Amino acid sequence: MNLQNICKSATVAIFVLVSGISALGQRTVVPVPAPAKLDVVTGNNLYCAGYVQTAPFYTADRKSANRPDKIVGAYNEQDGWLYSQHNDLYVNGGADKGVKVGDMFSVIRPRGKVTSHWSKTRDLGVYVEELGVVEVIRVKQEVSVVRVKNSCSNILLGDLVVPFEQRASIAYVERPRLDRFADPSGKATGRIVMARDHREAPTRDDIIYVDLGSDSAQAGEFVTIFRKLGKGNPVGFVGQNETVSARDGGFASDVYRGGKFSNQAPRKKGENANGHIVTTEDAKEDRPSDLRKVVGEGMIVNVKERVATIVITRTAQEIHTGDWVEIQ
Question: Above 90 in pLDDT, residue 221?
Fold first, then answer.
């Protein structure tokens, strides 16, 4: 090896050594991914929550309507009558009603009028069950083929279709701990008149319907769920005495019996216990009449004329139909 090759090899070795030392001195920057956006309400609770409305679904009859209004057929209808995700269906409108490929419709099923003895508003509207979302994949002259993109319940021929409305949930943020002794906010209040799937004791992530209309509530607002203190026991204790009378009966011997006093006797009024027996209701007279018990929290998904649809987000204990709701 001649001198020139030796010098060239030494130069390369020095360059590699210096590069390695330089690399060791540099700090490797690892990109930190942005935190994922979490929504308070997603999936079926956002698009299949259902609602109660008073407005009519259509302002014109089927033949004169300018858009499809119901499902009239199914590709595999010879095999059954229940349809769900990925099934292909027919709706009663095509090019004659301006339908285009890619149009989206929500499938709904009106279930009947809602009344409740919990609400002062006797006619709350019609309960509408949301069944899923369909997309137009083929347009003919008088019908269109739609494919079920999402289903939250079985779809039937005759179910109605209405234009799909994009809904957005507020992003999840860390909230203060649920205050079980929170004071009233002074904002609008309503009562739970019904829960989805006819539940009487809904819990977290369940859907409830409250008689708060669009004049006093809006989507995205949080609500406090509460009831009057001392209320909410579904069993009840009718016929059970809360105290024991002052008596001397029931002893085994007439000779060694005690005096006319029982150690199970209730407390009596007065400093010398010479008044009437103190009952639970007597004790409650010395406290404010508006004491309440907070049992949960929820977020409004959507609001119609007289009823708001709410998803329960947090609970302190069981919630009942008839409980109160207050806007935070």
Answer: yes
